[in-house]
Amino acid sequence: MIAAVRNLVVVVGFLAALTATTMGGVSAFAPHTRLNVRTSSSSSSASSSTILSMNVENVDIQDVVKVGVIGMGRIGLVHLEAITKAPGVTPVIVSNPTISKAEKAAKQYNIPRFTDDAMEVITDPEVDAVWICSPSQYHAEQIKACAKNKKHVFCEKPIATDLSETVEAINACNEAGVKLMIGLQRRFDSNFRRVKEAVQKKEVGQPIMIKLCSRDPAPPPASYVKGGGGIFADMAVHDLDMTRFLAGLDPIDILAIGSCHIDKTIEQFDGSERYDTACCLVRYPGGIQAMVDVCRQSSFGYDQRAEVLGTEGMIQTDNVYPNTAKIYKSHYTGNADMPYDFFLSRYNEAYVTETIAFCESLVNDTPVPCTGEDGLVALIMAIAADKSAAENRWVTFREIVEQVYCISPTECQLVAGSELFPVGFRPTSKPSDLLLPDVDKLKAANAKLPKIQGLVQGWFK
């Protein structure tokens, strides 16, 4: 009897925690905030939109995911081409402020409609999901508009250029019961995924050290760097995210430094925009160390490598070349050609793979593989790196998270440096505590409730 009571207490506690998660108990919110969370089953879009069915493995397509793409710039065209290669997906409308670019893309990829207004994509009744590939400053606004119109969202990183706006945009999707996937394409690269697999399967034992390098073939123009958020936000963020992806853990703190060696014209810019070279050390639980180095120029092509040292071995990736041909001469032995010299060619298949992964999530109603929370943590890591380089010290990631104050899930602000904190402000140290549970977490939580309830009822029969 004592054991049964003890088990009952554990189960009741679990149910209470589960209910709190489902109802959105978020410590960063103001007291007495009422959270309105709708699951996918209560969402009008989930019940009224076309039923989708696609088996990517067998390419057995019964219905098609209809999508719209916002932004026909460089990255938008990369995603659009990937969408045309993905099974079970069809683009039906594209937009760009310069309408000639939208028209050109529509003709090239046989898309029936084009426009210069992003809202026409978002409000199109035929569209099931929207790809947001517009300039970064428009991402948050467009994500919120998609949530309001019950459209699932794929958004290129960053979600927003501001931390509080990032939280608001994610919560807008979670509150509306629509899926949100963030484009961190390196997670879908076959080389990095093989390293991740080795870590998960303990092929090299317990991880000790993670190393990543990212070096561009040539520096971007100063006009691109100016206002771009600095080297940690616009470049190193991918590598910082990859350390978390490979570690499978949330980081603790970071130490970062930066310098200028390549393009002296940016040396007078503010903050980390004046750096073209940077290094980061990241500490993870269990003493795992991660090292990242980035540079805006290499002399030998696009340099993208990863390495994980474990207690029983090491796994590392090499650069990707356009072919496997090698030359053997008296003064040189090695690859006949240089590595790929641009991210579009280097990660083309990764863009296709992430597109298919999101569509598969929509079709099969499975969790998205790269969530809004993943995008939030990547931004937090980049902000912390910037702060570390500016202040020449270790910065904990909780320092960044604790700056966010939310009146409601979609009304947030930063309180950093303020002497007068809002009444009732309760800082949180975990990024997940800033967010409402997403539609996939709600589905998983709701699926567990009947089993637990049945177990409790069985004890009292």
What features would you describe in this structure?
This protein is globular. β13 and β14 form a beta hairpin. The protein is an alpha/beta fold and about 450 residues long. The strands form 5 sheets. It has a 7-stranded mixed β-sheet with strand order 14-13-9-12-11-10-17. Strands 5-4-3-6-7-8 form a 6-stranded parallel β-sheet, with helices on both faces. A two-stranded antiparallel ribbon has the order 1-2. The N terminus is likely disordered. The protein starts with a helix and ends with a helix. It has 15 helices and 19 strands.
Give me the count of strands. 19
Structural class call reads: alpha/beta
User: How much is the radius of gyration in Å?
Assistant: 23 Å
Shape: globular
Name the quaternary structure.
single chain
End-to-end distance: 13 Å
Number of helices: 15
Helix fraction, binned, reads 25-40%
Largest sheet: 7 strands, mixed
Quote the beta fraction.
15-25%
Low-confidence blocks of residues: 1-62
Q: Average pLDDT value?
A: 85
Strand adjacency order, main sheet: 14-13-9-12-11-10-17
Topology, please?
Elements: H1 2-23, H2 44-48, E1 54-55, E2 60-61, E3 65-70, H3 74-85, E4 89-95, H4 99-108, E5 113-115, H5 118-122, E6 129-132, H6 139-148, E7 152-156, H7 163-176, E8 180-183, H8 190-200, E9 207-215, H9 222-225, H10 231-247, E10 253-259, E11 277-283, E12 289-295, E13 303-310, E14 313-316, E15 326-328, E16 333-335, H11 343-346, H12 348-364, H13 372-391, E17 395-396, H14 397-401, E18 404-408, E19 411-414, H15 439-459
Give a short summary of the structure:
The chain has 461 residues and is α/β, with parallel strands linked by helices. It has helices at 2-23, 44-48, 74-85, 99-108, 118-122, 139-148, 163-176, 190-200, 222-225, 231-247, 343-346, 348-364, 372-391, 397-401, 439-459; strands spanning 54-55, 60-61, 65-70, 89-95, 113-115, 129-132, 152-156, 180-183, 207-215, 253-259, 277-283, 289-295, 303-310, 313-316, 326-328, 333-335, 395-396, 404-408, 411-414. The protein starts with a helix and ends with a helix.
